[in-house]
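Changelog excerpt

This revision adds worked examples to the README so contributors can see how folded entries look when concatenated. The first example is reproduced verbatim below.
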Amino acid sequence: MRHPIAKAVSICAFLLVALRIQSGAALASPFLHPRRHTLVGELVRTDIKAKNLVIRTAEGAEHVVAYTGRTVVHGVGRSADAGYLAGREGSQIVVHYTQRGATTTADEVDVFGHAGLKEVDGTLVGVGKDGRHVVIRTKDGAEQTYDLGQDAAIDTKDGTIDAGDLAAKKGDHVVIYHAQEGGRKVIHAFDDLGRKIY
């Protein structure tokens, strides 16, 4: 027969371990740690009553993204709320959003008009020492330098990363979306798709 104090210590130890495991699972929950991502496409519809946007990507998939009173819109002449997107259907946009479980909510929306963004598919071959310039090699072997815009979101499968983390991504297959601004090619969205394919 076990001593009552030893039994109580065993039960307490078991409960402590169970509590740590449970709190660790809670910390890993997507509801407590939302992931930030970007979505690039054409604005198909703005539903003011439902407070959501419908965006069609280049692949033809349509995504519904909710917006709130805190969603900020850039590129409409001044910073505005998402309600200003009504009537701008057909515009190319970059949506910076947060994913919490099954809910996708826009934090910021950048509007580029009907032909403002160009897509480039290639390999990241260089990152400037300042971390604000990148070199992309396309399938035909051509290399081009691009500036990272102030609002550039660098998206990976695990969420967005800082520009300072790009050097570790050299050789990765990337898709960038850029616009001509003052004679420069400025990146507004950067998707890191993983390891090099060509």
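The second example, added in the same revision:
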Amino acid sequence: MLRAGRLALVLLALLGAAVAARAQDAPRPRSLPAVVVKVISGDSINAFVNGEVVPVRYIGITAPAPGEGADGGEPQGREALAFNRALVNQKNVRLEFDVQERDTEGRLLAYVWVGEVLANAEVAGRGYGQVIAAAPNVRYYELLVRRQEEARASRLGIWKNAGPPPPPARR
């Protein structure tokens, strides 16, 4: 009986070690280091990646267009651009990819990390962007929605003049 108990403990320990080893082997999301060379808008940048400058679109958010020259762009567009510029311009970032890596215009689609800060979430959380369903790229969708709700409740950025949020959808 004691032998069976010891054998069970040994097998349990081996199983635990195998599970732990398997968890460490779980695939990490694909990502690349980059340097932001130009901020285009609240949701788009140009980044130096693998020896070339490439356009990058933030996954999961859309920001008002800033316009150029005499074109004033959309309301809050220049503010979104200025915020994103202060957040990422000329900084080392990590571009984290989801399921779809490029959009129809050929831009990289990425979650842009500045250290431990997710720029996509910061833009939404400060009210400079709106969350969009970007299936199949939805890894941080709930985080983005939560940050947007915080901005809306605080009436930040594009939410300054917005009415009350709609009631939660029934599931």
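Reviewer comment on example two: The chain has one domain: 31-159. The radius of gyration is 22 Å.
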